[in-house]
Structures are given as C-alpha cells and as structure tokens.
C-alpha cells in the first residue's frame, strides 16, 4: 500500500513547460480521477510519477520518500503500474508474452496469468495471437492485465476509454470497480469527465499544466467541475 | 559443372557475409543503432585472436575461449558507458560516436601492429576439401563457417523467441518507453544486446581472419559487405541476414566467374538493384 504525492511538480518537453507546480495526493486505497482537456498535462503527471520524464527528487514522494527523477523501472518495483494511453502493446509479442512482460519485476501478490485470464476470459483463447491483432477493447484488457501482472498497489490508467465503444467502456469500468474493491489504489486519467467522476473518490482537474479544481467527488457539483475543465 | 561449383562457393561465401551482418542487424534491430565501427570491430576481433594465439601458443579456434567473453564485456561496457548516453529520437549522435570509435580502433591497431597484413593459421584444414563427383570440390573450412553461421542464427532465434531475455529484446525493440513502463531496465537490455552482438562480431572476426588476411584498415570493406547483406535481407531480420549474405556471396561468385575483376562490383550492383526495387529488403522486421 502506498500514497503517492507530487509537490510543486514542474515538467518540460524541451523548452515547452507542460506542468507549473502541480500538487496532487493519490491516497492509499482511493480512486482518484485526473481530468482535463487535451494537453492539460494529465499524462505528463503520470509520466513524472513513473519516472518516464525527469523531475527533481523532491517533486514526487511515495510514502513520504522523495522519488522524483528515478529510473522508470524502479517505479514498478515500488508497486506502481501503468496502463498507458494508446495501450502500447508490443506488436512482436503474443498476448501471453505481453502479459508475462508485465510480471517482469513483479511483487508477491494475487495476480498470475491464470487470474488475469479469469478476469478477462476472452484473452485465454487468444493468448497466442499478436497483442495488436485483437480488437481495441481486448487490447485494453491485455494492457490492464499486463499492468496487474506486476501485482501493483497503485494502478495508473491513462485514457483507457479512448477510441472504444460505449459497451466496452462500461465493461472496463466494471472491472476497474472490482479492482477498487480489492483495495487497489487507482488513478483514472480521462477526458470523459462524467465517466471518471462517477467512479472516483477524489477528483483533480488540470488546465494548462495547473490544478484548476480539486476535492472529494461526492462534494463537487458537475457544474463546478465543468467550469474548471473548460476554464469558464 | 564449373558453374555449379561457382554457385556452391558463392553460397558458402554467403555464410561469412551473414556472420558479418548478424551483429549489425541485431544491434540495429534492438536499439536502432547504426554501428559504423562494426567492420573495425570485426578486424579488432581478428587482431585480438592473433595476440592470444601469439601469446599463448593456442590455435585461433581455441582463442575464442578468451576472445568471446572479452568482446561480450567490451560491448556491454561500451554500450553502458558511452552509447546509451547518445541514444534518443535522433539516430545521428550514436552513429557519429561509432564513427569516432571506428577511427580510434583503426589508428590504435595501426600504431600497435603497423599496416602489415596478418592472418590466423588453422593448418591443413584451411585448404582441405571433399569431392562431390569428379568435378566439384567443397572446402571443409568454408562449409564449417557456413554451418557456424546457421548455428549462430538458430541460437539467436531461440534466444529471441524462447527466453525471458528475448522477450525483453523484442519489447524494447518495439517500444522502449513502454518497456520501461513494464519495469525493464532498457539500458541494461541495450548493453546485453550489444554484448551479444559483439560475440557474433568476434566469431566473424576470428573465422574471417583464418579465411583471408587482415590489416588495421580492412574494417570498412567488411562493414560494407555487412551493410549490403543486412539491407538485402531486410532490416532487423536475423534469417534475412543469412539470405542477404547468400545473395551477396552468389552475386560475387557469379561476377568473379565471368571476370575476376567483376567479383566485388557484381555484389555492389546486385545490392543497388535490390535497394532500388525493394528498399526495405526481402524480409524487413523493422518498420521505422
């Protein structure tokens, strides 16, 4: 179990500044939604937490310990797994190999290949196919299963509904709700604010690299979230 | 019969070229690194074997016991300490660094060994052959080199498709950032890939050093043949390099049979024709 915190997080892509002092707390066992329009900096926050972009150590904390700027592969070892935007399955690997890769530096825990196949039954019969030969929804299941294979305590889901049919999205979010019941800390990064807010305990809205609204989901009105989202 | 013999010689020569090409293809396939020093590293392996043979009085094949691990370690460290710092979206910086490495290796070898030609001696087996019928003779050594090339490809194929390390290689080759998200230390993967590439380079260097003479400046020609074999076969494809090597070997043998002056030229012409008609080669694995 872990609490992840960013303090005054700034991030750059070359000369372009993407984040301007973002403070976010992802509490243990909670589901946190990070919403915002395209380019608001949501995925950059995820990348900073997982070490995919460089930050100074005191900008990211895990259980109070400064962890910013460390190598990405150490984030997995500390229990953080990411379902990346666009799924990012490995085309030269089969479905099963993609899942096994998720267990590369797995911690001890309940998630095994068999358990992933139980939760996403359609994958077992397609396990020998290339990950990219599946439908969008099935690919997303592989991406989630792959992240779970590391037995994380925090699951960061970046735009998991993007480009999928509503019925598939329903199914995915049902699975996310089940994972939450198992005590997993979940971060949902979404443009679809209604969807994200409906499953979240806590909401952060980002606009142009800054937090424009934060609070408990059940204490926020949709109108206030919309205002923060669109900056009106 | 003469032509059949020529084609067989070309086929076996292709084995040597594919050995040249495998290391280049592997390193490019995993990390998109074009190693300009590849040919010079092959020559460095020949010289390293030469030194081991002279110092310990062992044969060139026995020298592999020392040369192979030395080259693995050398590749691992060069990648970890130098080349990893240059890898990124731009392919030019690592290319320039390997170009620099090429110049350093050539001049260091020239300083130590002068420009004299050297050769590794394996004894009578070098010229031994067996006959197929009355008119066709097959050299035992070229046949052995061809078999070693195939064995190397089979071993690498098994490594890539049947091991955890191979899975890491393929994932990193597909999408290095996503591989890092899975907890893979891509810098270490790159270092191991270069180490393995260097082992293949060392095998090629020692086997070629027995087959023909070498001097500190023979690297660029070996690089050229390796490039041609890789591009004919298709970027990133290990079996493709065998095919590319064989096409190149056959082309040179046929050209040499028509007129000895045409031998090398015919190989280049076939390479240019393939480049014109199939710019990505016959079995490309790398899409970008």
From TrEMBL, chain A:
InterPro entries membership: AAA+_ATPase, ABC_transporter-like_ATP-bd, ABC_transporter-like_CS, BCAA_Transport_ATP-bd_LivF, P-loop_NTPase
Pfam family, one: ABC_tran
Keywords, comma-separated and alphabetical: Amino-acid transport, ATP-binding, Nucleotide-binding, Transport
Membrane-crossing residue ranges in chain numbering: none
One GO biological process term: L-amino acid transport
Protein origin, superkingdom: Bacteria
Keyword Nucleotide-binding: yes
Residues in ABC transporter domain copies: 4-232
Keyword Ligase: no
Entries under SMART domains matching the protein: AAA
UniProt GO MF annotations: ATP binding; ATP hydrolysis activity; branched-chain amino acid transmembrane transporter activity
Similarity-based family: Belongs to the ABC transporter superfamily.
Name of the molecule in the record: Leucine/isoleucine/valine transporter subunit ATP-binding component of ABC superfamily
TrEMBL record, chain B:
Membrane topology designation: Multi-pass membrane protein
Family assignment from sequence similarity: Belongs to the binding-protein-dependent transport system permease family. LivHM subfamily.
Pfam family, one: BPD_transp_2
GO molecular function: transmembrane transporter activity
UniProtKB keywords: Amino-acid transport, Cell membrane, Membrane, Transmembrane, Transmembrane helix, Transport
Cell compartments where the protein resides: Cell membrane
InterPro entries: ABC_transp_permease, BCAA_transport_permease
TM regions (residue ranges): 12-34, 41-58, 64-83, 95-116, 136-160, 189-210, 230-250, 262-283
A GO biological-process term: amino acid transport
GO cellular component, one term: plasma membrane
PANTHER family: AMINO ACID ABC TRANSPORTER PERMEASE PROTEIN (PTHR11795:SF445), BRANCHED-CHAIN AMINO ACID TRANSPORT SYSTEM PERMEASE PROTEIN LIVH (PTHR11795)
UniProt signal peptide: none
Protein name, as recorded: Putative Amino acid or sugar ABC transport system, permease protein
CDD domains, alphabetized: TM_PBP1_LivH_like
Keyword Cell membrane in record: yes
């Amino acid at each position: 179990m872990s609490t992840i915190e960013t303090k005054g997080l700034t991030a750059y892509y070359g000369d372009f500044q993407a984040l301007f002092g973002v403070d976010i707390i992802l509490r243990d066992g909670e589901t946190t939604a990070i919403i915002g329009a395209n380019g608001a900096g949501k995925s950059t926050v995820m990348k900073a937490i997982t070490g995919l972009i460089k930050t100074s150590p005191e900008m990211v904390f895990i259980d109070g310990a400064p962890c910013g700027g460390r190598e990405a592969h150490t984030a997995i070892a500390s229990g953080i797994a990411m379902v990346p935007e666009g799924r990012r399955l490995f085309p030269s690997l089969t479905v099963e190999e993609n899942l096994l890769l998720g267990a590369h530096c797995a911690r001890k825990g309940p998630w095994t290949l068999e358990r992933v196949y139980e939760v996403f039954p359609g994958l077992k019969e397609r396990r020998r196919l290339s990950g990219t030969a599946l439908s969008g929804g099935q690919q997303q299941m592989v991406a989630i299963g792959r992240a779970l294979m590391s037995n994380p305590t925090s699951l960061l889901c970046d735009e998991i509904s993007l480009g999928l049919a509503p019925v598939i999205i329903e199914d995915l979010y049902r699975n996310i709700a089940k994972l939450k019941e198992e005590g997993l800390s979940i971060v949902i990064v979404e443009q679809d604010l209604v969807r994200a807010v409906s499953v979240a305990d806590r909401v952060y809205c980002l606009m142009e690299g800054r937090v424009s609204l934060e609070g408990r989901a059940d204490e926020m009105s949709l109108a206030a979230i919309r205002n923060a989202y669109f900056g009106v | 019969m003469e032509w059949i013999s020529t084609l067989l010689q070309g086929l076996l020569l292709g084995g040597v070229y594919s050995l040249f090409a495998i290391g280049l293809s592997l390193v490019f396939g995993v990390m998109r690194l074009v190693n300009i020093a590849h040919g010079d590293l092959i020559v460095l392996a020949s010289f390293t074997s030469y030194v081991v043979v002279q110092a310990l009085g062992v044969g060139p094949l026995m020298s592999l016991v020392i040369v192979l691990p030395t080259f693995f370690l050398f590749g691992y460290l060069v990648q970890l300490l130098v080349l990893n710092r240059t890898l990124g979206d731009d392919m030019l910086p690592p290319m320039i660094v390997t170009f620099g490495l090429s110049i350093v290796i050539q001049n260091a070898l020239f300083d130590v060994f002068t420009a004299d030609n050297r050769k590794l001696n394996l004894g009578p087996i070098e010229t031994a052959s067996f006959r197929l019928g009355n008119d066709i003779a097959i050299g035992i050594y070229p046949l052995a080199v061809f078999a070693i090339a195939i064995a190397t490809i089979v071993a690498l194929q098994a490594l890539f498709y049947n091991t955890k390390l191979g899975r890491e290689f393929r994932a990193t080759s597909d999408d290095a950032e996503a591989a890092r998200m899975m907890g893979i230390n891509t810098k270490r993967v790159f270092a191991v890939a270069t180490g393995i590439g260097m082992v293949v380079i060392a095998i090629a260097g020692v086997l070629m050093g027995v087959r023909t003479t070498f001097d500190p400046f023979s690297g660029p020609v070996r690089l050229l043949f390796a490039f041609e074999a890789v591009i004919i076969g298709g970027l990133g494809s290990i079996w493709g390099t065998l095919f590319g090597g064989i096409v190149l070997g056959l082309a040179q043998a046929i050209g040499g049979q028509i007129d000895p002056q045409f031998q090398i030229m015919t190989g280049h012409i076939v390479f240019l024709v393939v480049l014109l008609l199939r710019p990505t080669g016959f079995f490309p694995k790398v899409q970008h």
